[in-house]
Amino acid sequence: MSESTQVTSRAGAPPRGQAQAPGRRVRRQWIVAGVLLAAAIYAPFQLVPFHVFQLTMVLVYAVALLGLNVLVGHAGQISLGHGAFFAAGAYAAAIMMFHWELPYLATLPVAAAVAFLLGLVLGVPAMRLRGLYLALVTLAIAIFLVPLLKRFEEVTGGSMGLSLAKPAPPAWSGLAEDQWLYFLALAVAVAAFLLAAGLLRSRVGRALHAVRDNEIAAEVMGVRLSYYKTLAFAWSAMFAGVAGCVYTWVIGFVSPDSFPVTLSITLLAGIVVGGLGSLSGPVLGALFVMFVPSLSQDINEAAPGVIFGLLIIAVMYVAPTGLAGLAGRAANSLKKTLRKG
């Protein structure tokens, strides 16, 4: 090869460090994910049943927030009615288990499909509305959900709700009930995060990002706004429905009062605090949703809502991009310190 050819090929190729950086980043992410998964598998054997239950609920909320992250963090739409999709999945599973006595695993795909279709229908307003107008429409969905569930008493159990038997661990597993429910939630959460990661790296994910960043530019590039906005609602609802289904397995009881309007607001606060547009954001947000309200109750039983609101303000002041962004900045600072040392 001539010298000029070598120079040309070198000029056309990226520097070696830049070419390897994405590969190293991906390997690092997989290593971190593997360590976290190993810790998650190890945890239920070292904790008391109540703490195992708390971690199980963190996984449930993480799946719900994963769907909300797709809608808000990646598609740029807002929803104050995500609790309605969560409730749809929970009641779909409960009704099938209570009235039809279906196996609990069979309820998962049906709950996902019900929530997905509901998201498609309710995603229609997203085609024409945005911002506060869209937020009001989704809030209305959460508001009329509770009286609607109470109205069809023969199916939903009305105000009394439906009591269900929790999934029993197989004899071969050697697990206690709380451990078995934890591993069911962990398996669903891992599958949901892998699905979301694949979705966001695909053509659909790139289209959602284009819609989020600039709708006019996205439309000029050939992105169908109405199609992808509706699809974002449907995918978001599906993840919430899956979370609601697992919630039914874990709690063994559903009632209209389990899904108040404040649930939707809390979920939105959770994903904003956790970090929009980040795969770690739903997990951090789920930890916030699970533990901060109870912490607020312990600090002041008379006004836990005030303490909860103040804690949200404090977190957002310290971490404007969410806890995921704060963790990323802390990791970068640690790397710079180690390199200097």
Describe this structure as you would to a colleague.
The structure is a single chain. The protein is an all-alpha fold and 341 residues long. It has a domain at 52-263. Helices cover 76% and strands 1% of the residues. It has helices at residues 3-12, 16-42, 49-74, 82-99, 104-122, 131-151, 153-156, 177-201, 203-213, 215-220, 225-251, 261-274, 281-299, 304-318, 323-340; strands spanning 162-163, 253-254. It has a two-stranded antiparallel sheet. Helix 3 packs across helix 13. The protein is globular and about 60 Å long.
Amino-to-carboxy terminus distance:
43 Å
Radius of gyration computed on alpha carbons = 22 Å
Strand content: under 5%
User: How many individual β-strands?
Assistant: 2
Biggest β-sheet strands, sense, barrel: 2 strands, antiparallel
Helix content: over 70%
- For the largest sheet, list the strands in their spatial order: 1-2
Mean pLDDT: 85
The secondary-structure element order is HHHHHHHEHHHHEHHHH
Low-confidence stretches: 1-20
- Label the overall shape: globular
Task: Name the structural class.
Answer: mainly alpha
Count of alpha and pi helical runs: 15
What's the layout of helices and strands?
Layout: H1 3-12, H2 16-42, H3 49-74, H4 82-99, H5 104-122, H6 131-151, H7 153-156, E1 162-163, H8 177-201, H9 203-213, H10 215-220, H11 225-251, E2 253-254, H12 261-274, H13 281-299, H14 304-318, H15 323-340
Antiparallel strand pairs: 1-2
Helix pairs in contact: 3-8, 3-11, 3-12, 3-13, 4-5, 4-11, 5-11, 8-11, 9-11, 12-13, 13-14
Biased composition (Low complexity): 10-22
Membrane topology: Multi-pass membrane protein
InterPro entries: ABC_transp_permease, LivM-like
